[in-house]
Each structure stands twice: as C-alpha cells, then as structure tokens.
C-alpha cells in the first residue's frame, strides 16, 4: 500500500501575531489554510488573512439562511450535440445572490461550503430545484437531460441515495432525466467506495459523467471500472485548443480513449466558432461553452433554444 502524503505548515509568531497560545494557534491555523489553498508548503500569518478568514466565516454563517431566504437560483447552460447540430441537454449551475454583496462567485461558495461541512443542504436544494425544472420541461414537451454537479462530500453522504429516490418518486422521473456530474478528484477521494456509490446511482436510473476530466490525478487504469456514460474534458485543455497543438493532442487522445471505453465525450469551455470546429474534428460528441451560450436563467431556456440555430429536437439518446 502506498500513501502520497503532503503537508502544509502555518506559522504565527510570538509576540507579533499574538501573546497567548490560543490566538497564536488560531492564527497559525489560518496561515495553514492559506498555504493549503495556495498549494504552498508553508505560509506565515498576516492580518489580511484574518480579515479574509472572518469574511469567509461570515459568508458561511449567511449561507445557512440563503436557502430559506430564497437567495439561491439555478442557471442552465446548454449542451450542443455536434453530429446532429441540436441542443441535447443542459447543466444546472447554482447561483447565490447575496442581498448586500451581490452575486457570490459559485466556485468560491461551493468550495467554502465543502470545507465548512455545509455542502449537503446546498446539494439538496440544487437537486430539488433541478428535478422541479426537469418536470417543468417534461410538461412543456422538452425531453432533454439536465445535469447536476455533486461534490466529493455528497458521494459520502449516507442520505444521498434516499434523497434521490424520494425525488424520483415525487416527480415521476424517468431514467435518463437527470445526469450527475462528479469531478475526477471527487471520485479519487475514496475510489473503491466511490465506484460502489456510482453503481447504486446507475441502478436508480441516473446517467453519470466525469467532470473536469484531465484536471485531476485519476489513474487511467481505474477509468474502465467506472460505470459512467460520459467524460467532460476540462476547459483548461479546450480553451487554448485553437493555438495549442499540445492541447489538441490531449483532447483527441482523451476522446479516442473514452470512446474505446464506451463513454460519450463532452468538450467544456468552447468559446469560439474555431474551437467548436476543432473539438468536432478532434472527435468530441458534445460541446458546452460560451460560444453555444452562457448559463442563463432557467425560464429563458425554452425561448433561447427555439431562437437558436440548434433548435431541432435532439435524439432522445442524449
Ligand atoms: P463545472 O461543473 O465544470 O461547470 C462549468 C463552469 O464553467 C461554470 O462555472 C460555467 O459557467 C463555466 N463555463 C461554461 N462555459 C465556459 C466557457 O466557455 N469559458 C469559461 N471560461 N467558462 C465557462 P460556474 O457556474 O462558476 O461553476 C464553477 C464550478 O462550481 C462548476 O464547474 C462546479 O464544479 C461547481 N458548481 C456549480 N454549480 C454547482 C452545484 O450546484 N453543486 C456543486 N457541488 N458544484 C457546483
Ligand atoms: Mg459540471
Ligand atoms: Mg467542468
């Protein structure tokens, strides 16, 4: 058994950063968190870090109320099926509009919620909103899958499967209505437990996708054990694609490998017509990104799709 161990050290100095043990320890911990976030071996405490830490703490305190005060909303970002040139689904992305701070960047509050052990209520809210939205689509005759992002913590949440079962029953959800996106790094936290959870999710009728593919450290040998339907190639390879031959090679190799394993290939971060053409040439099946559309309020989706060049109904396979 091999362990890959990393350490991050936080330093607080007596007496400049505090004169009693409790304050020094707390500030050393704040510095350690800074080192972790920056991916550095160590960091020294600085007063600005304390302000940042209090800001985060305040934000997390307020996230508790954000749900009950209806400050969260879903946006949808369409996915384009390349061969049929038709919209074939959308990804649900959560947004938090704070009454004083305005829009809080999603990645920031999701990461904070994960660290603070508060992701479960957020995930449950997002799942409820997504099922409700998918049902509304069904009633409006839009039969496309909606994707939801899950966190590493969600995979270990013992209530996740029951929550999902309950939602499937409540909304009469059909298999394939909802796709779940899991990042590579989330799957690697406890790989064998993750594989089991994925199997249970598949049995419940969910499609599964590996998000941010290529950005984590998953071993390739482990991929074939995953019961997933799609991989989403990380935007860090797709955005520079038009200028970078290296990125083109990575995208096309990932697509080939994924196809051999029977997975569908989504390119994330398609920002231009050129990028769309390139990902098509390199063998991707689906494109998502600003060129197709920025994420939009859920109630705009139907009209947007009807007015887009990709309005013909996609095959139900997607
Ligand atoms: P993700 O799942 O990989 O989502 C794609 C992100 O890329 C979104 O950012 C989207 O707005 C952005 N994006 C889409 N097209 C383009 C493009 O062409 N160029 C560029 N530069 N960016 C593009 P967003 O909404 O800020 O979300 C960031 C991340 O936060 C997501 O990455 C996902 O990991 C996480 N996230 C978002 N919503 C949820 C949620 O409901 N639950 C959980 N657990 N995580 C979420
Ligand atoms: Mg995603
Ligand atoms: Mg992604």
Outline the secondary-structure elements.
Blueprint: E1 9-11, H1 21-38, E2 42-44, H2 47-68, E3 72-81, E4 86-98, E5 102-104, H3 106-115, H4 119-139, E6 146-150, H5 152-155, H6 160-171, E7 178-183, H7 184-189, H8 191-203, E8 207-213, H9 220-223, E9 230-233, H10 235-238, H11 245-260, E10 264-267, H12 273-281, E11 286-287, E12 296-297, H13 301-307
Parallel strand pairs: 1-2, 4-6, 6-7, 7-8, 8-9, 9-10, 10-11
Antiparallel strand pairs: 3-4, 3-11, 3-12, 4-5
Descriptors:
318 residues, two-stranded parallel ribbon, binds magnesium ion, alpha/beta, 12 strands, 46% helix, 13 helices, eight-stranded mixed beta barrel, binds ligand C2E
What does this structure look like?
The two termini are 40 Å apart. The chain has an 8-stranded mixed β-barrel with strand order 3-4-6-7-8-9-10-11, surrounded by 4 helices. It has a two-stranded parallel ribbon with strand order 1-2. The longest helix is centred in the N-terminal third of the chain and has 22 residues, at 47-68. Helix 4 (119-139) runs parallel beside helix 6 (160-171). The radius of gyration is 21 Å and the shape is globular. The chain has helices at 21-38, 47-68, 106-115, 119-139, 152-155, 160-171, 184-189, 191-203, 220-223, 235-238, 245-260, 273-281, 301-307; strands spanning 9-11, 42-44, 72-81, 86-98, 102-104, 146-150, 178-183, 207-213, 230-233, 264-267, 286-287, 296-297. The chain is 46% helix and 19% strand. By secondary structure, the chain is an alpha/beta fold. Helix 9 (220-223) links the parallel strand 8 and strand 9 (230-233). The mean pLDDT is 92.
């Amino acid at each position: 058994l091999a362990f890959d161990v990393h350490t991050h050290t936080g330093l607080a100095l007596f007496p400049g950063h505090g004169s009693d043990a409790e304050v020094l320890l707390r500030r050393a911990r704040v510095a350690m968190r800074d080192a972790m976030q920056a991916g550095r071996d160590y960091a020294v405490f600085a007063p600005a870090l304390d302000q940042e830490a209090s800001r985060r703490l305040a934000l997390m305190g307020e996230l508790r109320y954000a749900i009950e005060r209806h400050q969260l909303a879903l946006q949808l970002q369409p996915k384009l099926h390349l061969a049929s040139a038709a919209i074939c689904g959308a990804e649900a992305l959560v947004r938090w509009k704070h009454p004083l701070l305005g829009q809080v960047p999603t990645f920031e509050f999701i990461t904070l919620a994960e660290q603070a052990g508060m992701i479960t209520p957020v995930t449950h809210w997002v799942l409820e909103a997504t099922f409700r939205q998918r049902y509304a689509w069904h009633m409006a005759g839009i039969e496309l899958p909606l994707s939801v992002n899950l966190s590493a913590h969600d995979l270990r949440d013992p209530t996740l499967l029951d929550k999902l079962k309950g939602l499937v029953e409540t909304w009469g959800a059909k298999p394939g209505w909802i796709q779940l996106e899991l990042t590579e790094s989330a799957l690697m936290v406890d790989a064998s437990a993750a594989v089991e959870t994925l199997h249970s999710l598949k049995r419940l009728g969910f499609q599964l996708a590996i998000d941010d593919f290529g950005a984590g450290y998953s071993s390739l040998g482990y991929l074939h054990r995953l019961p997933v339907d799609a991989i989403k190639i990380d935007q860090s390879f797709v955005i520079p694609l038009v200028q970078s031959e290296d990125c083109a090679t990575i995208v096309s190799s990932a697509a080939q490998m994924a196809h051999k394993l029977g997975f569908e290939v989504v390119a994330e971060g398609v920002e231009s017509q050129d990028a769309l053409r390139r990902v098509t040439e390199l063998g991707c099946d689906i494109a998502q990104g600003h060129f197709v559309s920025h994420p939009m309020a859920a109630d705009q989706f139907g009209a947007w799709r009807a007015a887009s060049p990709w309005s013909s109904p996609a095959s139900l396979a997607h």
